[in-house]
Specification:
It is a single chain. This protein is α/β, with parallel strands linked by helices and about 725 residues long. It is about 50% helix and about 20% strand. The chain is built from 24 helices and 21 strands. The strands form 4 sheets. An 8-stranded mixed beta barrel has the order 13-14-16-17-18-19-20-21, surrounded by 4 helices. Strands 2-1-5-4-3 form a 5-stranded antiparallel β-sheet, sandwiched between helices. Strands 7-8-6-11-12 form a 5-stranded mixed β-sheet, with helices on both faces. It comes from Streptomyces thinghirensis. It holds the Pfam family GGDEF.
Length: about 725
């Protein structure tokens, strides 16, 4: 058994040894293999540095590729063996236990840069040889007669010994001479190329200007041209070359011959195609990846007038459950099968399917009639997912949510289109999944605005953009003001004043509701202290009280009780000045752990109000176990009382709730009172306090002072 190298330098030398053994047999060098290994050692060290560098050093990798040419590794096989060696061993011996996946990706980019550096250096060397040959050819024609023999001998030596293919033809295109390198490129052992005509070598992949440049050259209108050209070999395979064709003139300047110099680039082209494929296709499914898809989408969006596009953005429903329960290997097999089915859905011209990552796929269709085509494409995708997929002996049902964006080219960027499709897909998923939805610009705008508000919330709290308005609580018996409910508002720099329905759900989703709620509680309690200082500890009708809403997130926060105690102590306000409102839905099915902080607050003297009572499905018997002292009836109970006579069923319901509440020593507050008739009817039914626009809309704290003065004079 061979011992592993002990340190980084030993590993590096081991890598250089493997590299030299692989490449030395195809290298034209007079050095021995150990000497050649010493030449590769600094190159190996440079590759190791590039692999582990913080930012990718493409120039360093290209320099290594160029150094191979300087070391006489000019055979294409030398490059292929080098890349195979780097691919197999560089991360193993030089990765130093880093992120294996990241190092493999870095290694692939490194190989691409090495190949580019090798190609550039080989091309420069080839061009230098071509220039030397061309100069020798010209000098051979221009020398005086007595030096003709020596010049011809030198030209023949260059012609036969050159590593690139050389051919000479007359101006009619008949091949006169070819060297051995060119015959080897075409895979023939005898000079059967002689006598053939240049025009016989047309190829379907010829650049449009190929034969125009050729005609200009044989007419004497240009001296040379250079391009990439493909040729058919006798066995039917394709030979790709860098072709340079020069015009040879006689002593009088009359065009006489054409000289073709060919560099075989077939292996390099295949390597570039392989690297290009790996860079633009998903390794797991073989589908085009995100970068390739964006290229196609950008091309479709710039297609010009009259062209349209359709995009289906697919996300699998419940894919995380497959990964969590069966493992990622099973999830990968599921994705491969889904990719195959999606690929079969997009076979028409102008259609493609790509994988963006994870379980997200996109299907694109282009052309003038995508309005109907994209709907049909989405339908085919949904049908393709109907049949269960067998994974590890289990039949898995696969469903997906699709967001569809369709429209004319030239109006939106790829990023905007994909964002709209993503938003629409999540709208389909929120509607239950296993469906597709069409993009709605208004819905997109709402989501974008929602996201903007979410990201702006933390800074808004720091900048003091929130303020509180207060809506009075009025006693129905004598009309006196008994307190107010604190309602937070957001003065947004762009959108103006926003109500709590616009940002409280966002604050709950992000967790910012806890610091925001703490701020609202402290500001409201300070305002309660200011009112009590103005009106005294109690008014003629009793103490003024401030009502503050608690969200479900605040209820489960462990610091709720301590924060409330600290705020009351810091402001010097008695607990009976505070009422915390909790929605009925938040307490449905609440266990003792959730009720424990509310019980502690109630024992301190803080009132607890059950807000929006009547909108949920709680058992009325549960009221006995809840630590509440106030029921706040939802405004839905008062709407029918705006008409006369009121709905008798609603009257009976409210009367029953009030009787039940009073039997449990609970006060009843009614929301949404907008008319005097409502207020009178609720007073007759026995409700204690009310709030609504009939008394006052939410406003600044001074409004309560004005109402209190009116109450006092009355």
């Amino acid at each position: 058994m061979i011992a592993e190298p002990d340190g980084p330098e030993d590993r590096l030398r081991r890598f250089a040894t493997i590299w030299s053994r692989a490449v030395f047999p195809v290298t034209s060098t007079s050095s021995t293999r150990p000497e050649f290994e010493e030449q590769l050692l600094p190159l190996a060290r440079r590759l190791s540095e590039v692999l582990r560098a913080r930012s990718f050093d493409a120039d360093g990798a290209r320099a290594v590729g160029a150094a191979l040419v300087d070391s006489h590794c000019t055979d294409p096989e030398a490059l292929a063996r080098t890349l195979d060696c780097v691919d197999a061993y560089l991360v193993l011996y030089c990765g130093e236990d880093g992120d294996a996946e990241g190092l493999r990706a870095r290694s692939a980019r490194l190989q691409h840069a090495m190949a580019a550096g090798f190609a550039a250096a080989l091309r420069a060397r080839t061009l230098a040889e071509q220039e030397a040959i061309a100069q020798a050819a010209l000098r051979a024609q221009g020398v005086v007669a007595e030096a003709l023999h020596d010049s011809e001998a030198r030209f023949r030596a260059v012609f036969e010994g050159a590593a690139i293919g050389i051919g000479i033809a007359d101006l009619d295109g008949n091949v006169l001479q070819v060297n051995g390198a060119l015959m080897r490129m075409f895979g023939i052992a005898d000079p059967t190329l002689r006598g053939r005509n240049v025009r016989e070598w047309s190829h379907p992949d010829d650049a449009p200007q190929t034969w125009r440049l050729y005609d200009e050259l044989v007419r004497g209108e240009r001296e040379a041209y250079h391009l990439e050209k493909a040729f058919y070999r006798p066995d039917g395979t394709v030979l790709w070359t860098n072709l340079t064709v020069s015009l040879l003139r006689d002593a009088d300047g009359t065009p006489q011959y054409q000289l073709a110099l060919m560099e075989d680039t077939t292996e390099r082209r295949l390597l570039n195609l392989r690297l290009r494929y790996e860079a633009t296709h998903d390794a797991l499914t073989g589908l085009p990846n995100r970068s390739f898809f964006f290229e196609r989408l950008e091309k479709a969006l710039n297609a010009g007038p009259g062209q349209r596009f359709g995009l289906c953005y697919l996300d699998l429903d419940g894919f995380k459950t497959v990964n969590d329960s069966l493992g990622h290997a099973a999830g990968d097999r599921l994705l491969v099968e889904v990719a195959d089915r999606l690929q079969s859905c997009a076979t028409a011209p102008g259609e493609m399917v790509a994988r963006l990552g994870g379980d997200e796929f996109v299907a694109l269709t282009t052309g003038p009639g995508t309005r109907d085509e994209v709907d049909e494409l989405a339908g085919r995708i949904m049908n393709a997912l109907l049949a269960p997929i067998s994974v590890d002996g289990r039949e898995l049902t696969v469903r997906g949510s699709i967001g569809i964006v369709e429209g004319p080219a030239g109006e939106r960027s790829p990023a905007e289109v994909l964002r709209s499709a993503d938003i629409t897909m999540y709208r389909a998923k929120s509607a239950g999944g296993n469906r597709y939805e069409l993009a709605d610009p208004e819905a997109d705008a709402r989501v974008i605005t929602r996201h903007g508000l979410t990201t702006a919330l933390p800074a808004a709290l720091e900048r003091g953009e929130f303020f509180i308005e207060y809506q009075p609580l009025v006693h129905l018996g004598d009309g006196s003001v008994r307190g107010a409910e604190a309602l937070v508002r957001w003065l947004h720099p762009q959108h103006g004043v926003l109500g709590p329905d616009r940002f409280i759900p966002l604050a709950e989703h992000t967790g910012l509701i806890v610091p925001l709620g703490r701020w609202v509680l402290e500001q409201s309690v300070r305002q309660a202290r200011a009112w009590r200082e103005r009106y005294g500890e109690t008014t003629a009708a009793g103490p003024l009280r401030i009502n503050v809403n608690l969200s479900p997130c605040q209820l489960t926060h462990p610091g709720l009780v301590q924060d409330t105690v600290d705020i009351l102590e810091r402001t010097g306000v008695a607990p009976d000045a505070l009422c915390l409102e909790v929605t009925e839905s938040a307490l449905i099915g609440a266990d003792d752990d959730l009720l424990k902080p509310l019980r502690r607050l109630a024992e301190m003297g803080v009132d607890i109000a059950l807000d929006d009572f009547g909108t949920g499905y709680s058992n009325l018997a549960n009221l006995r176990r809840l630590p509440v002292s106030v029921l706040k009836l939802d405004r839905s109970f008062t709407q029918s009382m705006q008409q006369f006579p009121a709905d008798p069923v609603d009257l009976k319901i409210v009367e029953g709730i009030v009787a039940l509440a009073h039997s449990l020593d609970l006060a009843v507050t009614v929301e949404g009172v907008e008319t005097g008739a409502q207020a009178e009817q609720l007073r007759i039914l026995g409700c204690d306090t009310a709030q609504g626009w009939y008394y006052a809309r939410p406003g600044p704290p001074e409004r309560l002072h004005e109402l209190a003065l009116v109450d006092a004079t009355a």
